[in-house]
Amino acid sequence: MLRDTLRTPDDLVEAGFVPLSARDELAKVAARYATAIPPALAALIGQDQGAIGRQFIPDPSELHAAAHESSDPIGDEALSPIKGVVHRYPDRVLLKPTLVCPVYCRFCFRREHVGPGGGALRPDELHAAINWIGAHPAITEVIITGGDPMILSAGRIRTLLRRLGDIPHVKRLRIHTRVPVAVPDLINDAMIAALDVATPLFIVVHANHALEFTDPAQGALRRLRFGGVPLLGQSVLLRGINDSERALRDLFEAMLNARVKPYYLHQLDPAPGTARFHVPVAEGRALIAKLRGTIGGHALPTYVRDSIAGKRVLEESAVSD
Ligand code: SF4
After folding, report:
1. Does residue 41 line the site of ligand 1, with CB under 6 A?
2. How far apart are CA 149 and CA 95, in angstroms?
């Protein structure tokens, strides 16, 4: 297995994931969007370039934005009252302590913002963000996202969870993360201890293909479970990755088998250069309709589209695109 995270076009050529002839074009992509493929996922790409590689290997098409695509497709910036905070719903708030990720998904709706250069909130910025949450008593739940918050050290996560839990009106915490499937080793004893907080905490795991539930990933999820953390799953409907009845069934069953409740299936948000992943809503609805009745109801997530106005359930509505 490769031991280092792949970050440059040269790394990708050396790993055999792209031809040498693509290197110069990919250098232009790399100048704009971060790349990181950690060893666990690089090993998977070696087995299945299609579904896994497509999620993480950069492509020259990323340099071409379609007219309807936006650098802030669901309005995070417009809804940010203070750096690191997004306030879309009265009772919930997003807190983004870092914009660094262990892996950079080519379809990410925050792709214009995430990356190693994005860094973490400075201590004074984090302090101000937590104070802002403390000053808004209608907020009962804090969703810690990014970037990927679980890339932070166990010590920083411990401190963050406790500071948020000390706010009397904050009744629940949530962490959105790719880490259990991307860098399962980070879910170690220190991290499990850091997650042991008095405030109810849920972890929402982002995975898009059944193959991501490797033995190490399942080990990480098991450790989280034994640590008493309820697990939910979220996915994005992606062309060439999970846009078939079989792929979605396998994904949701893999989640359930890992005791991760499928929670949301997201329609792709139109971030720049992501058109190759687009699946029309009508097709997504047809896929969900085929699955309903052929797998257990608890295996089916809610099919949604995010927007500046919030989530919209696509399955039963007459929404088209
Ligand atoms: S891990 Fe999440 S925030 Fe990071 S690139 Fe992937 S989708 Fe975006």
Report:
1. no
2. 9
Atom of ligand 1 nearest to the CA of 34: 5
Which is the closest atom of ligand 1 to the Cα of 182?
1
Is any ligand 1 atom within 6 A of the Cβ of residue 108?
Answer: yes
Atom of ligand 1 nearest to the CA of 110: 8
pLDDT tens figures, 146-178: 899 999 999 999 999 999 999 999 999 999 999
Cα 293 to averaged position of ligand 1 atoms, centre (Å): 32
Q: Round to the nearest angstrom and report the end-to-end CA distance of the chain.
A: 42
Which sequence spans correspond to the domains of the chain? Answer: 1-64, 72-313
State the closest ligand 1 atom to the C-alpha of 147, by its place in the atom list counted from 1: 3
Question: pLDDT tens digit string along 66-115?
Answer: 888 988 888 888 899 999 999 999 999 999 999 999 999 999 999 999 99
CA–centroid distance, 101 to ligand 1, in Å, is 6
Distant-in-sequence contacts of 167-170, Cβ < 8 A, 24+ apart:
167/130, 167/133, 167/134, 169/137, 169/138, 169/139, 169/140, 170/133, 170/139, 170/140, 170/141, 170/142, 170/199
Taking the model in full, what pTM does it have?
0.95
% of the chain surpassing 90 pLDDT: 87
Cα of 177 from ligand 1 centre, angstroms: 8
Which residue's C-alpha comes closest to atom 6 of ligand 1? 105
CATH classification code of 72-313:
3.20.20.70
